[in-house]
Specification:
Structural class: mainly alpha
Order of helices and strands: HHHHH
Distance between the termini: 16 Å
Number of helices: 5
Number of strands: 0
Radius of gyration: 20 Å
Strand content: under 5%
Shape: elongated
Helix content: 55-70%
């Protein structure tokens, strides 16, 4: 596995297309589980959309409940994706101002940004938890499933990003 200069790795913007990303060894199994979850969600979305289209156009009987499931799965796909990008240090960023910093200052800037980002994501997680507490028992129109299933994707994403940002401090 090829690594980039540690000073340049300090910022997520040091990622280049085709470059192998560093994932903490502790998180390799977790990354595989998250990737599998994302793959299952994406596969399920494709199957549900295909089944609904087939049922609608071939048999004249649409499956309206699939819309609710697909929307919930899309939230989870986004949550899985943002957590994976956070773990890998591949979030989109602009290095216009940090490009001229010395490696030591880049590391300091990376740590400050990681702490700030972890704080913001933990606040989002707390607010999401409160929202789920208030409205999580509401049910969807077709399936009558609790809406907390959808909102939990946002909670997973914000908690996952918080953990990823805090773990990035160890690099």
């Amino acid at each position: 596995m090829k690594f980039v200069n540690p000073g340049r790795l300090a910022m997520a913007s040091s990622y280049h297309i085709g470059q192998k990303l560093r994932v903490p060894k502790v998180g390799l199994g977790l990354v595989k589980i998250i990737e599998a979850g994302a793959a299952c969600c994406i596969s399920s979305i494709a199957l549900l959309v295909f089944a609904n289209a087939t049922s609608r156009y071939l048999f004249g009987r649409p499956l309206p409940w699939t819309d609710e499931v697909v929307i919930a799965l899309m939230v989870w796909v986004a949550a899985f994706g943002i957590v994976l990008a956070s773990i890998r240090g591949a979030l989109i960023s602009c290095d216009l101002l940090t490009r001229s910093l010395s490696p030591a200052r880049l590391v300091l800037m990376r740590r400050l940004c990681a702490l700030f980002s972890a704080g913001v994501m933990s606040v989002l997680a707390w607010l999401t938890w409160q929202y789920i507490d208030l409205f999580g028992n509401d049910v969807t129109a077709m399936l009558r499933a609790p809406k907390s299933i959808v909102y939990s994707g946002l909670l997973f994403g914000s908690l996952g990003m918080t953990i990823a940002f805090l773990l990035s401090l160890r690099r």
